Amino acid sequence: MTGAQTQTKSWTGNEIRETFLRFFESKGHRRVRSSSLVPHGDPTLLFTNAGMNQFKDVFLGLEKRDYNRATTAQKCVRAGGKHNDLENVGFTKRHHTFFEMLGNFSFGDYFKKEAIAYAWELVTSPEWFGIDKSKLYATVFGGAEVSPGNKLGVDEEARGFWLEQDVPADRVFAIPGLKENFWAMGDTGPCGPCSEIFYDMGPAASEEGHADCKFPCDCGRYVEIWNLVFMQYNRVMEMSVPGDAVNLRRYAEKLEPLPKPCVDTGMGLERTAAVLQGVLSNYDTDLFVPLMKRAAELCGIGAENFKEEEKYEEEGSGAASLRVIADHVRATTFLITDGVLPSNEGRGYVLRKIMRRAISHGGLVGATKPFLYEMVRTVRNLMGDAYPELRDPAAARVPDIVMAEEKRFANTLDRGANELQTVLTRVALERANVLLKELESEGLNNAFDKFADLGTDGLIEWVGQSRGRERAERLTHDWRDAFEKPIPGDRVFPLYDTYGLPRDFIEDFARDRSHTVDWSSFESAMEEQRTRARASWKGGAKEAANPAYTKIAETFKTEADFYYGTSTKDCRIEAIIYLGGANRADAKGRPVNELKAGESGEVVLDRTVIYAESGGQMADTGVFYDPSESQVVAEVTGAYYPVAGLIAHKVVAKETLRVGDRVAVAADAARRDLIMRNHTGTHLVHAALRNILGTHVKQAGSLNSPERLRFDFSHFAHVDPEELRDIEQQVNDEIRFNTQIETNVSSLEDALASGALAFFGDKYPEHNVRVVTIPDSRAPRGFYSKELCGGTHVHRVGDIGVLKIVSEQSVAAGVRRIEAVTGVGALEHYQQRAQMLSQVASKLNVGEDAVLATVEKLAETAKQLEKQMGEQRRKGALGQLEELAGRVQMVKGVKVIAAEVQNVDREGLRQLVDSLRQKLGSGVVALGAPNEGPPPRVDLIAGVTKDLTAKVHAGKLIQALAQKVGGSGGGRPDLAEAGGKDTLALKSALSSIPSLLEGWL
Ligand SMILES: [Zn+2]
Ligand SMILES: [Zn+2]
Predict the structure, then answer these.
(1) What distance in angstroms lies between residue 205's CA and the mean position of ligand 1's atoms?
(2) How confident is the model at residue 544 (pLDDT cuts 50, 70, 90)?
């Protein structure tokens, strides 16, 4: 190494990620693993999209951890949001669907001073990233009105700390306004100023060709690499005093300093890699290049031609597709690994769109067979060290799932192309119809017939003869328009939306058929769909918590006594929310001091034995008694968690309830027993499914009600009857083994290490997770089932009695649902089935053992009879042959048979036409058969002998006839078929044939 050279280390993406985490570990931070891409407990969020998501409750003070400094590399997905339309990804330097956010977090520990010092040290110190200081800029919050009447000034504090780091004063910029440098969790809650570090990529990075622009120009030259958020304030709604009839909306917003301010930072790994690897585009880093090369290889471009391919970019093709694939396969691999499956709704819909976009781009650069599933392995090799879940045995199925989607999409394109053709034709015909109606309204009464008879050219000629040249020319022009005017985009949007046909495909397909598409109405249809999707997403989620509960939860948690029994005494009423009753409509949804007899509301107790709905287990019902337990004071219809840790009982008051009163609480114990049997049954079914179908089976939702249990799980095929029988047998074997269920509380780490299953979408506290174990001394690990679960369970497995699966079905692509009954429910199920069998037997007048054989015989007989009837009908039809052959009429020297026949199906009609054609040797045959239905229907078939097809086209003839009977049809020149609705018009349609033919012969 010569002295003149400055040695700059070459950083791989993996090294950058690891160095970041190691740096913060050396500063006393706990390294916390990335949370799932499927956020739990935050229904407002489609996918995890920032490092702070998993710490939201910690920042809100609702959850405590045993550390107050943390650092993470968080996997994130943003797709289809306001700022990241899928269509952009691949065509810019820095848009991604999947990306990694590096972050450090302080939970009421250090604040601005340390956060800024850490960031600057990591970024610039030669021992760490060692980025050239002369390329860096810092920003601070420059002041804005952050809530009504609350104006904050420049964050001089932060500026001071940057200067302390020897950042030159002219490199620290105060950016005013709320958009850039102010962060808020929502309308209420933590908020505060931000500070950012920017890197100057140089003029070559400017997307607007700026040669010498100054910071903070947003042309692309200056790239934000790190955002430090200082959670300094709490925005709260000031509550009015109970009893005051103030509307919720008039609660005032207030800004309070947080007693323990927090730090949340985010450094984008992809852009930092671009900086440290000295490239302009994130896609030129080692995070993406290997993926693009592999894509080039698989799609037939060849990895060796990859560089050249990049040059095509200037011509606007090629490399962009490779970038799309590289980005999308990362999102695809991680989302499926986290349990999302391609489907038509919610998260699965977004995943499907991402996958299909990648697959079509593969097609654009030449892929002719599935390739994306192969790329999953490349992602796994690149990122498996940082994200071990990619190498989990359960993730082994990801390539299969991707391949299945690739095949399904190929079918979709086939089917979609057919549908698209139909739409194009239909739109053109609708427009032609309008023109024909116009002609009729001008007194040209036979316009439809003329078109059917003569085709487009004939029609125009006829119009010219009847109305003059000018009219004919206008018609020519309008007619061309009808077929060439752009197809309304909202007509083809459903193909994009439901068949998943890509826009490019639709455009090419239409162009090949000399159609264009009006994309503006396509866009508005898409916007409408987005609004609907957004609404349905919110609709599926819980409503935002009543602010009253958020307030109560700040100081108080309900003690959950339902694990220990179903009745307890001396519970204190902590709060009452009024819901309805006599005449206090103004108080609805608001805290009140008392609830009178007959009124309904929600009651918070200091502790309770009523199980609150969660983890798929339905809530208990029950009653509140007065302290002496002699009188019911309220009926409890359910309970839920409005915010974490707080239980709200839904009640109807029987006596006056007041805040501060003491009550005894009793849950309906018999009902709870039924629910518990089903809940423990769910755990058994889950374990059996994994034993028999494989460990890829993941819980996708469950419901445990008194009547039955329902278990949804990911699995790609249907579960066949033998497998179901095995599952049922294994579960019942376990029930008979009758071990005692164990419940422990441990740390999440220990629980997972011991083999406990966690529901993939769930967010668990780090400590005090409940682990429910069904021990089994026969199993290698000493248990049959072990799950993280907050529900209530039977004492011994044998308490379930028996478990019977009653149904297995698909609920979404790749998601199956099993329903089962237990105990008394199972007995009832058997009894009902047995009763049904005995009823069938007595109807058949045989013994129960003979039912199956008897039904088989009956079905066979029915089939025979049907066949005979069909044959008879056809014979009857052929019986009419001679009579019909005698009804030949001559039109311009050609033999023609046009007749109505009775009691003949289509097949019979076809045979008749064929036979008559043969009999005539040369001629035209058209037969129609009415069918009274319901619904009433007309079948029409026309046949023309080969020697006449040049003059008489059977297809055209049948079209003309079809129109008269309100139907449609078509076919070859020698044979054509049609169907219609108007049975009354059949006679006149048939009698119009000679005059029709006269025009042609
Ligand atoms: Zn610029
Ligand atoms: Zn459970």
Answers:
(1) 9
(2) low
